[in-house]
Structure formats: C-alpha cells, structure tokens
Amino acid sequence: MDFFTLSQNRESCRNFDDSREVEREKLEKIIACVRLAPSACNAQPWFFTVVASPEKRKEVASAVQKMNMNLFTSKARAFIAISQDKAAGVAGKVASRFFAPYDIGIAAAHICLAAQELGLGSCILGWFDEKKVIAACQLDDNKKVSLVIALGYAANQQRRDKKRKKLESIAKYM
Hints:
With 174 residues, this protein is of the alpha+beta class. It has one domain (3-155): NADH Oxidase (3-Layer(aba) Sandwich). It is 33% helix and 18% strand. The strands form 2 sheets. Strands 1-2-6-5 form a 4-stranded antiparallel beta sheet, sandwiched between helices. A two-stranded antiparallel sheet has the order 3-4. Helix 2 runs antiparallel to helix 4 and helix 3 runs antiparallel to helix 5 (130-136). It starts with a helix and ends with a helix.
C-alpha cells in the first residue's frame, strides 16, 4: 500500500485478537525496517527487545498496566520495548540538544507503520513501570526504557474515524 494510505489506515489498536499469534517472520521484518530509521548523526541510540513468549508477554503486560490503564495489553501477542543506554547520546548531542528521544520517536513510528503494512495492530505505550519492564526484558541496569509497543492482530478490522485538528490550525505556508 502507498504511504498515504498506510498513514490513513494506521491507528492505535486497543482490542487485540488473543487467539492469533504474531508470526516470528513478521516481527523480524519489523525489526529489519526499524533498523533503517534515521537518527541524528546516525547515532542509532536504541535497542529493541522483542517479547513474544507467553510467559514474558504476561510480565510485560503486567508492567504496563498501572492504575487500571492499558488493561487491553493482556491480549497483545507481542511487545517491542525500545530502550537506550542511559549514557548514550554523545554523538547525537549537538548544540546542547539531546536527540535520542526524537530518534526513538521516529523508530516507534517505523515500528507502527511496518506493523500496519504487515496487517498487525499496534499501540505505543508510555505509561509503565520501568523497573518491571527492565526485569521482564532482562535488560542491563544501564538501559532506560523509553517506550513499549504492543502488537497483535486487531480483533475488529473496522477503522475508527480519525479525529484530527484542521490543517489550518496545525500548519501555515509562507
């Protein structure tokens, strides 16, 4: 599908089909795609932990379910935790600006768009217990988890209407 159709069709999935596993080949394709994401000074300040085993999925789902939020993640069939080294970013620090958070945002977009292209739903999660995610993903203490992305097949393929600001309120041409 072309990029504009892909962008129009991509949405945050909060209702996964828990009877259908995500194929490893699709997860590998997503990682191959995100590897190509741009980053400031080509620093690539990320590390991706793909969680697909049932026992580890349960641990990650528990870590992202805080204050009755993100309960839908119990049905996700995979997660990708995006982390960075706490000390990383020297190459990406220019003019007193730390670019790793932007780079990780771009990487997250690549993951979600690749998932959509492969017929998977995704949801970016920023609300989680970082220590629990680090433990579940068996990451070193020098890692900082930036985002977790839930993946799976959507239980309902019907698209919601996108509610967005009007173009003239978000951009101007000069």
